[in-house]
Amino acid sequence: MTDSIRPLRSALFLPASNPRAIEKARGLAADAVILDLEDAVAPDAKEAARDAAIEAVKQGGFRAPTVVVRANALDSEWGAADLAALARCGADAVLVPKVATAGDVELCHAELATAPNAMRLWVMIETCRAISQLQSIADMASRTRLAAMVVGTNDLALELRAKPAADRAGLVPYLALSVAAARAAGIVVLDGVSNDFTDLDRFAAECAQGRTLGSDGKSLIHPAQVDPCNLAFSPDAGEIARAETIVAAFADVANAGKGAIRVDGKMVERLHLREAERVLAMIQSLRGPEAR
After folding, report:
1. Helix (H, G, I), strand (E, B) or coil at 95
2. What secondary structure does DSSP assign to 52-69, as a single string?
3. pLDDT surpassing 50 at residue 1
4. Which of 6, 157, 233, 240 is the most buried (most CB within 10 A)?
5. Count of H helices and E strands in the chain?
6. What is the pTM of this model?
7. Residue 2 has pLDDT above 60, yes or no
8. Which one, of 237, 225, 165, 177, lies nearest residue 201 by Cα?
9. Per-residue pLDDT at 29 exceeds 50
10. Top-level CATH class of 10-232?
11. Structural contact between residues 137 and 123, judged by C-beta atoms closer than 8 angstroms
12. 10 Å Cβ neighbour count for 209?
């Protein structure tokens, strides 16, 4: 277990073609900003948006510790050119939409062959085919740059013909499957966007649901969603105290070598210790190096 982990509670999409949005995003407390070349950009502005994204990454100044660029799909007329240009742009990751199979991941990885080793690949899970191939897609993390899956709930709901509902009942099984696949492969998984950015109550409910299902965080479409998202996907005081208690209990010499112990009247196993360590590592990362 490392001393800290980089959280990905909030990932804010913004159009790479909008310089005002990019400038505003530089001061936001999102864990990641995603400069979008796909849905948010008109066809005749794609190439200009690509150049703008590369320049924005080069200029830097983002408060967000992770900067991502979403390319166009590989089967689009801009996809291959996007990846070729973005490979050396200096972003932390490239997000590729419409990834449906392990072969698609392999192809994206190959297109980023000239990128620095540190650049990661994120993929959108937003089609029925992708849902049917979830584990094989996630398992590509062991031999490619793949580091995160982002569930594209809007596109997925349309393809499923799922009825819109406040509780997202039609999407819950696929969100849960995405989390399971990501956990098995040891990668990040982010819940999809909440479309009505004026309805923060519904947004809070979606965040709570996503966290209950196990998502690491959520993708966002508006700055107003950043702070409540960070709060929702951060351990609360009770979780932190519980994690500290579990870690301290296993560190007690009286419990040396034990696989299961009693903590506050409940049986706790080493799998709970690993989760407690993860929680404390996340908190350490959020507090910053000065708290060490």
Report:
1. strand
2. HHHHHHHH---SSSEEEE
3. no
4. 233
5. 12, 10
6. 0.93
7. no
8. 225
9. yes
10. alpha beta
11. yes
12. 18
